[in-house]
Amino acid sequence: MTTLVRNAWYVAAWSSEIDDALRRFVILGDPVLLFRRTDGRVAALEDVCPHRQLPLSMGKRIGDTVQCGYHGLTFDTDGKCVRVPGQDRIPPSACVDAYPTEERSGIVWIWMGEPERANPDDIFDLPQFHDDSWHMHHGGALHIKSNYLNVAENLVDPAHVSFVHETTLGNSASENVPVHVSTSGEEIIAWRWIRNSEPIGFFKAFGNFTGNVDRWHYYHLRLPCTAYIDFGSADATRQIAEDDRDSGTRILALHFMTPVTETYTIDRWMHLRNTAVGSDEASDKMDAMFEIAFGEDKEILEAVHMEEQRPRKRRPIRLAIDHGPMVYRKRIAEMLERERTDDASAPPDGSYIIHS
């Protein structure tokens, strides 16, 4: 049974990845053709010609249409066939799916589900995207041989940082610090503060902290698989309040997970920061540190996924720190169930009295 939610917005690519060329991507197991129309907007089509199944990305553009490279069937950006060489009649079944797209903040979003349900207002956004006092920097893309659920769970799990990222994003000072979890809103949030402790490697290198700091990690996970981590540090002698994080060195690390298949996920990552605004040198320095830390995650997640494919001798255990991931799995299951069924219910007519 699939784990892939279709009625949701996913990141198809960075804006910088899409130009006039015909480019093939795979999203939720489906081949997708992306290119920029002559008006600059991003077109997204099913990347399979319905005639002989050749990828349309192997054809060529003619204005805002795509001509199949095998027999010349030509499709517009709505997926409709507009020409069949050698005959006037165009079969009604000569069409491909067209997917809604939106482009914001250098990110191309795509909707792979029922088109009529695509609401651009549901696309992930943060106030810091539009705040000139914050610096936005697009990073890279982590290709992970793992189901996206494992990748997403890792991004609402502060507890792993002390052990997986000992020299980069964590250290032993946080091993026994309680993790707080909230699942009451749209986002699943897990967080903790580590007071008056040695700065982690990231902020030794970037924040230039030498004495002890108060530091925080807030992990936000929005379904189905967009996450951002609010983390930072401030000099411990200042004893800043939890809602005064902007007065410290604060980073928002964003992760946009795109399920390619059930066993392969692309995690495109970027960051927003309230310091070193406009500095390319700072961006490069942070990229290098993030690449090390995210490489550590990749190694762990791929090993976990591989072991999950083996027959199990015993049932897996769950700990107190797993509350956020468990709620996440439950909500994904509910989303999938809604997609598998049609709600044909009507208001109660007296036969059933519903109390809720």
Automatic annotation (TrEMBL):
Gene this chain is encoded by: van
Gene3D superfamilies the record matches: Naphthalene 1,2-dioxygenase Alpha Subunit, Chain A, domain 1 (3.90.380.10), Rieske [2Fe-2S] iron-sulphur domain (2.102.10.10)
The organism's place on the tree of life at top rank: Bacteria
Cross-referenced InterPro entries: Cholesterol_7-desaturase (IPR050584), Rieske_2Fe-2S (IPR017941), Rieske_2Fe-2S_sf (IPR036922), VanA_C_cat (IPR044043)
Pfam families tied to this protein: Rieske, VanA_C
Rieske domain span: 9-110
Regions crossing the membrane: none
Keywords on record: 2Fe-2S, Iron, Iron-sulfur, Metal-binding, Methyltransferase, Oxidoreductase, Transferase
A Gene Ontology molecular function term of the record: metal ion binding
EC number: 1.14.13.82
GO terms classed as biological process: methylation
Protein name: Vanillate O-demethylase oxygenase, putative
